[in-house]
C-alpha cells in the first residue's frame, strides 16, 4: 500500500502530517510526502520519501525569519508580526486580506503539479493538510478521494453559520468592540467570497465542466481528520462533517544529551514556546521569563527567533535554546506557556500538561477559549498581560490538578492519533 501525504513546506504543518504517516510506515507500507524542499531533512528523519510539490511562496524548516523568505513573503510576514502588536482584531483583519495572495498561490500550476505527483506515486490513499488549498482544488476537481487533516481548533474548517477567519469564540481576556467585530466579519465574508471566486475560476480552467462550490474555505475531503482532542471540541455545538478526532499526533524525537542531563533534576519546571512564527514576540517572552523568575520556577524556554539575551537574566537552572525537543519536555513539564498553536496545545493536552495560552492569531483565539471553557488552563491577552498577571496564571494552573487532563492523556496513550487515522482510512483497529 502507498500513502501520499500532501503538506505545505512548513515544519509546523509537516510534523503532524508526517507523524500520521508513521502508522503506515510502521505497517510496512510506502509513505511519500509531497512538499517543498525546505523541509526535506525532516521528511528523511521520519524515514519517508519526498517528492517535490511547493505549495506557497514561503517556507519554514523550523524558525520563521522574514529575512530568509522571498521579498513578497518577507513583507507579508513583517506586516503580520506588526499587526500582532496592535491586537486581536487588527491581526485577524490583516490575515484576512493576506489570504487572497498566500493561500492560492499559482493555483492552476500547483493543482496540475499535484495531479502529476499522483500519477507518479499512484497512491492507494491520500491525506492532505487542509490549508494545502491548491492541492485540494486539484483533488476535488478531478474527483479523487482524500482525507482532509485540519490542524488547530476545528473552526479552521468553518461549518454552517461561520465565516473563515472570524473566531466563533474567544477567551474572556479579550473584549473587542462590537462594531470592530462586525467590520471584521464583513471583511472575512468578502474575502471568503473572493477566495471562492478564485477557486471556482481555477477549477474551471482545470476542467471546464467543473461545478462552482459555494464556499471554498468550507470545502473538505471525504473524511476530515481533526488533529485535536475531542474533549476540547465538546460543547462547541458545531455540526461537523464525517470525521475522526486524532487527539494529537505525538511524534518520536531523537535523544538530546543536553536535555536528558537537564531532566535528571526532578524539580518541576514550566515549558515555554511560541512556535516557529510567534517566537518573534520577544517582548512577551521577556514578560513570561520575568514571571517565572518571580515564582522561582525552573524553565525550559524555546526562544526561536528571539535572542536569549532578550529574556533578561537567565537563572543557572533554566534550559534556554533556540529549539528544544517539545514532546520530550512536555512529557515531564508541570505546566506550559504557549501561543496556542496546534502542536503546542495538542502535545501538551495529550500528555496531561495544563496550559497558559497567549493567543495572537487565527484559530488560536477559539482554541484558547476551549482551553478556558474546559478548565484545562488559562488564557490571557499577550499584549496586555504583565508579568504579575502571567505569574498569577502560571501559579493557578500549577495548582489546578485537573483530572480531565489525566484522563485525556491516558486515552491518547491507548489510542494514538496516527493509529486512529490509520484505522479510519483502512478499516482496522485503532488500538496501539
Characterization of this structure:
With 432 residues, the chain is of the alpha/beta class. The chain folds into two domains: 2-250 and 414-426, Rossmann fold (3-Layer(aba) Sandwich); 257-412, Rossmann fold (3-Layer(aba) Sandwich). It has helices at residues 11-26, 40-45, 71-84, 88-102, 107-121, 133-142, 178-206, 230-233, 257-263, 275-278, 282-295, 326-330, 342-349, 364-374, 387-398, 403-414, 417-426, and strands at 2-6, 30-35, 49-52, 125-129, 147-151, 223-227, 243-245, 269-273, 298-302, 319-321, 335-338, 355-357, 377-379. The chain has a seven-stranded parallel beta sheet, sandwiched between helices. Strand 12 (355-357), helix 14 (364-374) and strand 13 form a beta-alpha-beta unit. Helix 5 (107-121) packs across helix 7 (178-206) and helix 6 (133-142) crosses helix 7 (178-206). The longest helix has 29 residues, at 178-206. It starts with a strand and ends in a 6-residue tail after the last helix. The mean pLDDT is 93.
Amino acid at each position: 500500500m502507498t500513502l501520499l501525504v500532501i503538506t505545505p513546506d512548513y515544519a509546523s504543518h509537516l510534523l503532524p502530517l508526517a507523524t500520521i504517516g508513521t502508522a503506515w510506515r510502521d505497517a510496512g507500507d510506502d509513505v511519500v510526502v509531497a512538499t517543498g524542499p525546505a523541509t526535506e531533512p525532516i521528511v528523511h528523519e521520519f524515514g519517508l520519501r519526498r517528492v517535490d510539490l511547493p505549495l506557497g511562496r514561503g517556507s519554514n524548516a523550523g524558525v520563521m525569519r522574514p529575512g530568509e523568505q522571498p521579498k513578497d513573503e518577507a513583507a507579508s510576514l513583517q506586516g503580520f508580526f506588526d499587526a500582532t502588536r496592535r491586537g486581536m482584531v487588527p491581526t485577524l483583519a490583516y490575515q484576512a486580506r493576506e489570504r487572497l495572495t498566500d493561500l492560492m498561490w499559482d493555483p492552476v500550476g500547483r493543482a496540475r503539479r499535484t495531479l502529476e505527483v499522483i500519477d507518479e506515486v499512484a497512491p492507494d490513499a491520500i491525506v492532505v493538510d487542509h490549508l494545502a488549498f491548491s492541492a485540494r482544488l486539484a483533488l476535488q476537481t478531478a474527483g479523487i478521494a482524500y482525507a482532509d487533516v485540519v490542524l488547530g481548533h476545528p473552526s479552521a474548517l468553518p461549518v454552517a453559520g461561520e465565516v473563515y477567519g472570524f473566531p466563533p469564540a474567544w477567551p474572556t481576556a479579550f473584549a473587542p468592540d462590537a462594531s470592530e467585530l462586525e467590520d471584521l466579519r464583513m471583511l472575512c465574508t468578502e474575502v471568503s467570497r473572493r477566495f471562492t471566486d478564485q477557486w471556482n475560476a481555477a477549477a474551471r480552467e482545470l476542467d471546464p465542466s467543473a461545478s462552482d462550490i459555494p464556499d471554498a474555505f468550507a470545502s473538505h475531503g471525504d473524511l476530515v481528520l481533526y488533529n485535536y482532542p475531542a474533549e476540547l471540541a465538546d460543547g462547541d455545538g458545531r455540526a461537523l462533517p464525517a470525521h475522526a478526532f486524532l487527539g494529537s499526533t505525538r511524534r518520536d524525537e531523537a535523544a538530546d544529551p543536553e536535555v536528558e542531563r537537564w531532566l535528571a533534576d526532578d524539580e518541576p519546571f514550566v515549558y515555554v514556546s511560541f512556535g516557529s512564527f510567534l517566537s518573534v514576540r520577544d517582548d512577551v517572552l521577556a514578560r513570561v521569563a520575568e514571571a517565572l523568575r518571580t515564582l522561582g520556577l525552573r524553565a525550559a524556554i524555546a526562544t526561536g527567533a528571539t535572542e536569549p539575551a532578550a529574556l533578561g537574566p537567565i537563572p543557572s537552572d533554566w534550559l534556554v535554546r533556540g529549539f528544544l525537543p517539545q514532546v520530550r519536555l512536555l512529557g515531564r513539564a508541570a505546566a506550559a506557556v504557549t501561543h496556542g498553536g496546534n502542536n503546542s496545545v495538542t502535545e501538551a493536552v495529550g500528555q496531561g500538561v495544563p496550559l497558559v495560552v497567549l493567543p495572537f492569531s487565527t484559530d488560536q483565539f477559539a482554541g484558547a477559549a476551549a482551553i478556558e471553557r474546559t478548565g484545562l488552563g488559562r488564557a490571557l491577552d499577550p499584549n496586555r498581560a504583565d508579568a504579575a498577571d502571567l505569574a498569577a496564571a502560571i501559579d493557578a494552573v500549577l495548582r489546578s490538578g485537573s483530572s480531565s487532563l489525566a484522563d485525556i492523556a491516558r486515552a491518547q496513550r491507548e489510542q494514538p492519533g496516527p493509529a486512529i487515522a490509520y484505522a479510519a482510512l483502512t478499516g482496522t483497529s485503532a488500538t496501539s
